[in-house]
Amino acid sequence: MSELDRMLNDWAERQALPESRARKIRAIPHAELSSGWWKAHFHRVSDVLKASTDPRAFLAA
Amino acid sequence: MSPPSRAEDTALFDALYDAHHRSLYAFLLGQTGDREAAADLLQESFVRVWKGIGKARPIPAEQRGRWLLAIARNLLIDHYRRRGGRDESELVEATSGGKDPSEIVLEKDQAQRLDGAMGRLDPDLRTVLTMSVVGGLTSREIGETLGRPPGTVRYQLSEARKRLAEEVER
Fold first, then answer.
1. Chain B contact present for A53, CB below 8 A
2. What would the pLDDT profile of B21-74 be if each residue is shown by its tens digit?
3. A18–B9 CB contact, under 8 Å
4. Among A32, B88, B95, B152, which one is most buried in terms of CB atoms within 10 A?
5. pLDDT at position B98, please?
6. Shortest CA gap B26–chain A (Å)
7. Cβ atoms of B71 and B49 closer than 8 Å
8. Computed from CA positions of residues B121, B127, B133, B134, in that sequence, does the dihedral angle turn out positive or negative?
9. How many CA atoms lie within 13 A of B31 on its CB side?
10. With an 8 Å Cβ cutoff, are A24 and B42 in contact?
11. Is the distance from CB of B99 to CB of B113 less than 8 angstroms?
12. Closest by Cα among B18, B26, B36 to B136
C-alpha cells in the first residue's frame, strides 16, 4: 500500500458517517409521528419538496 | 389489490437505506467537503424518501439509486442557495482548520495536509474520490450512480490522486 493510500484510508475513517447518526437516519420510519421533531422536520421538508422527486418526472427524464 | 402496509413501506425504506446510504453520503461529502453538512443532507434526503416512499415503489430497483441521487442533488442546491452560493474558500476553510499558532503547527502533520488538499480539490474530482474511498464503490458503480462511463471515472480517480500526491509531498 502506498503512502497516499494509507493517508486516504485514514482520511476515510475520519470522514465516515458517525454510527449514531446512521442509526438515527435508519430509524426515521420508526420515529414517533406525533413527536415534535418529526412535525418540525416534515414542516420544513414540505416547504422545499420538488416535482423532480416525482417518479413519473424522473423516469421520463 | 390492497394498499401497501406500513410494514411494507418500512421494509422498502430499509432496503433503500441499506443499498444506497453509503454512496449517497460519500456523494454529499465529496460535494460539500464537510462531514456535518453531508450527514445533515443525508438525513434530510431520507426524511424525503420516507415522506415519498410511495413514489419509490414503481421505480425499477436498478433506477432507485438515481432517484435518491436526484433527491440529494435538490437538497444540495437548496443548501448552497441558503448559504448564498457555493463558496470554495469557505469549503477550504472548513476542512483545513483555523489559523491560530497551534493549528499552524498541526498543518505540518500529514493528516492535516491531506485534509487541506482535499478541501482544495475540485469538487467533481473530490466527489469521485470520496465515493471510492469512503463509499467503497467501484469505478463502474460510481459511473452508474453519476451517469458517467467507468473509463471517465477511472481517469478522474487517477487525476484526483495525482493532485493530492503533489500537494501532500510539497
1. yes
2. 999 999 999 999 999 999 999 999 999 999 999 999 999 988 899 899 999 999
3. no
4. B95
5. 44
6. 9
7. yes
8. positive
9. 22
10. no
11. no
12. B26
Nearest CA among B103, A2, B61 for reference residue A10: A2
ipTM, 2 decimals? Answer: 0.75
Cα dihedral value A31, B46, B34, B138, nearest 10: 130
Instruction: Check: CB of residue B47 under 8 Å from CB of residue B156.
Output: no
Q: What average pLDDT does the segment B119-134 reach?
A: 94
Sign of CA dihedral B159, B161, B167, B170: negative
Q: Work out the pLDDT band at B6, boundaries 50, 70, 90.
A: confident
Whether A45 has a pLDDT exceeding 70, the answer reads no
- Which residues of chain A have a CB within 8 Å of the CB of B29? 15
**Structure confidence at residue B115 (pLDDT):** 86
Percent of chain B with pLDDT over 70: 84
Give yes or no for B50 touching A (CB within 8 A): yes
Interface touch A53/B21, C-beta < 8 Å: no
Q: Percent helix, strand and coil across chain A, each rounded to 5?
A: 75, 0, 25
Share of chain A above pLDDT 70, in %: 51
Contacts of A40 in chain B (CB under 8 A): none
For chain B, counts of helices (H) and of strands (E): 10, 0
User: Which grid cell is B29?
Assistant: 461529502
> Which residue in this structure is represented by grid cell 477511472?
B154
Tens of pLDDT, residues B30-41: 999 999 999 999
Which grid cell sits at B78? Answer: 437548496
